[in-house]
């Protein structure tokens, strides 16, 4: 049976009615991955996947996601399965434990077929910083899939897998979801456990998921999110069922349009798609209200102080001693540190460590880091004010569609601007998602929906209603044409 491009819910049904077995599903998945040219996986786990599939077929595994193949971003620790975080420094790292998110998805019966490619330590917007090679966008192999969770997004977009995890520190789920024409969500900061997620910027990092539609995302989120005592920032509020309100009527609800997000200088097709999407919501009885986030212009500069600062501290653990890559022909300890880190990290990671160390150093701390923390609070307060008047906030997910591989690598600032619309949600800690809503230059673009704290149900409800009244999420790349 051709399983490519089937949604999670469709596959679940096929398993339930026994039209397909999990063994067939897993074998088909590996066949499709083997013929793929997008480089979206770093490590595969075929043998164990088939053992699990057999166990499901024999009725030994139960659960909401039982028997379904999924993929994990290579930033989540997976017990006895190599976890590289896209870096040379972790090329041979085999974690002795599972991340909580992985544990949760395993407990629901899903089968992790492998680890997806990503920007090194999740630093990037194009997947070009991965030590394991660039991922290609399934819609156009000359273009990037977005990043940092580009492998996960490309794998779902290409129909290799119906769902894959991602992490989002400044947009790494939403921007690749947009550029690959799929749905992706990052919940409220602290809603999913960070235990076992290799840290980039701990106060911003959040796990989430990619799927073919909002309904599947809701089902996955029901398992990805949990309270975890192993993560001190984990939220203990009662866990919601994200599918419960997904069909709610939107009549009389309000969407905020951010006054300060000037989209008039973006590509005409991006603007037109935005207007069309507004009309879809209007037809569902939604009202539009202008909201102001006066400090939003500080988002990118604030992020590029806070994130590197935290990264420089988090990445200090990779020293050639504890685990990971160790340089050869060393004469003393200092040389061991310097050589292992110089050879183990790529350029972008080094750039962030340098910036981070600088902004945290005595004499500069007040001028940069403290100021960034203050502006971060102002951005958060802006969101709190705005959400007094509206249910959700809507914007484009990224400034345009997928760009050519190599076209922004020489200009880091240009690359950083990819996250113009996404970064503020991480600084504020609010949930946000991206759904496909049109094309620019013949390539998919995304619509961002942001919600108030712990209101992921609300954005999923808006997204689901949108998808019931549009067909952008059903479109898929024509693989024959581009291969
Ligand atoms: N593109 C952003 C960066 O390079 C965000 C990455 C992310 O969300 N992990 O930092």
Notable traits:
483 residues, alpha/beta, Amidase signature (AS) enzymes, 8-stranded mixed β-sheet, 3-stranded mixed β-sheet, globular, binds glutamine
Architecture overview:
This protein has 483 residues and is α/β, with parallel strands linked by helices. The protein has helices at 8-16, 22-35, 46-57, 100-107, 150-157, 174-180, 214-224, 268-283, 299-314, 333-344, 347-360, 366-386, 412-416, 423-428, 456-468, 479-482, and strands at residues 41-44, 69-73, 111-116, 163-167, 183-186, 207-211, 254-258, 287-291, 392-396, 432-440, 443-451. It has a single domain (8-253, 388-482), classed as Amidase signature (AS) domain (Amidase signature (AS) enzymes). The protein contains 16 helices and 11 strands. β10 (432-440) and β11 form a beta hairpin. The structure holds glutamine. Glutamine binds at residues 122-125, 148, 168-172, 200, 307, 419.
Number of domains: 1
The CATH topology name reads Amidase signature (AS) enzymes
Residue ranges: pLDDT <50 for 5 or more in a row? none
Total number of helices: 16
The amount of helix comes to 25-40%
CATH superfamily caption = Amidase signature (AS) domain
N-to-C terminal Cα separation, in Å? 21 Å
How would a crystallographer describe the biggest sheet? 8 strands, mixed
Q: State the CATH architecture.
A: Alpha-Beta Complex
Outline type? globular
Structural class: alpha/beta
In N-to-C order, the SSE pattern is HHEHEHEHEHEEHEHEHHHHEHHEEHH
Number of strands: 11
Q: For this structure, what is the CATH class?
A: Alpha Beta
Major sheet: order of its strands?
4-6-5-10-11-9-7-8
Average pLDDT value?
96
Strand content: 5-15%
Report the radius of gyration as a whole number of Å.
21 Å
Bound small molecules, deduplicated = glutamine
């Amino acid at each position: 049976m051709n399983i490519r491009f089937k949604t999670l819910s469709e596959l679940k049904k096929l398993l339930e009615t026994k039209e397909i077995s999990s063994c067939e599903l897993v074998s088909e998945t590996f066949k499709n991955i083997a013929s793929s040219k997008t480089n979206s996986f770093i490590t595969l786990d075929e043998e164990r996947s088939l053992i699990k599939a057999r166990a499901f077929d024999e009725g030994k595994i139960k659960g909401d996601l039982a028997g379904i193949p999924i993929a994990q971003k290579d930033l989540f620790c997976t017990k006895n399965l190599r976890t590289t975080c896209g870096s040379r420094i972790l090329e041979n790292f085999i974690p002795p434990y599972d991340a909580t998110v992985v544990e949760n998805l395993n407990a629901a019966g899903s089968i992790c077929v492998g680890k997806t490619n990503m920007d090194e330590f999740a630093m990037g917007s194009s997947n070009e910083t991965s030590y394991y090679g660039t991922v290609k966008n399934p819609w156009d192999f000359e273009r990037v899939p977005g990043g940092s969770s580009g492998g996960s997004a490309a794998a779902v977009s290409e129909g290799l897998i119906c769902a894959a995890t991602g992490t989002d520190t400044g947009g790494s789920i939403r921007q690749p979801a947009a550029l690959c024409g799929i749905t992706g969500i990052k919940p409220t900061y602290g809603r999913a456990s960070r235990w076992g997620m290799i840290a980039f910027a701990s106060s911003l990092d959040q796990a989430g998921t990619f799927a073919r539609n909002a309904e599947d995302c809701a089902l996955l989120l029901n398992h990805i999110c949990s309270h975890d005592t192993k993560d001190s920032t984990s939220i203990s509020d009662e866990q919601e069922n994200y599918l419960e309100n997904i069909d709610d009527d939107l009549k009389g609800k309000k969407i905020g349009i951010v006054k300060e997000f000037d989209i008039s200088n973006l590509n005409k097709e991006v603007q037109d798609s935005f207007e069309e999407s507004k009309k879809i919501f209007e037809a569902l009885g939604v009202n539009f209200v202008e909201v102001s986030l006066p400090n939003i212009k500080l988002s990118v500069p604030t992020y590029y102080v806070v994130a590197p600062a935290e990264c420089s501290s988090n990445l200090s653990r990779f020293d050639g001693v504890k685990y990971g890559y160790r340089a050869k022909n060393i004469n003393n300890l200092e040389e061991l540190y310097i050589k292992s880190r110089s050879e183990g990290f790529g350029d972008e990671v080094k750039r962030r460590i340098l910036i981070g160390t600088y902004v945290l150093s005595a004499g500069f701390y007040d001028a940069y880091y403290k100021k960034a923390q203050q502006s971060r609070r102002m951005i958060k307060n802006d969101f709190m004010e705005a959400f007094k008047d509206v249910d959700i906030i809507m914007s484009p997910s990224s400034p345009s569609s997928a760009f050519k591989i190599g076209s922004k690598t020489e200009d880091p600032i240009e690359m950083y601007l990819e996250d113009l619309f996404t970064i503020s949600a991480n600084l504020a800690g609010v949930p946000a998602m991206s759904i496909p809503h049109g094309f620019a230059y013949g390539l998919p673009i995304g619509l961002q929906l942001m919600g108030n704290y712990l209101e992921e149900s609300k954005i999923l409800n808006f997204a689901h209603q949108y998808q019931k009244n549009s067909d952008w999420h059903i479109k898929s790349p024509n693989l024959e044409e581009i291969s």
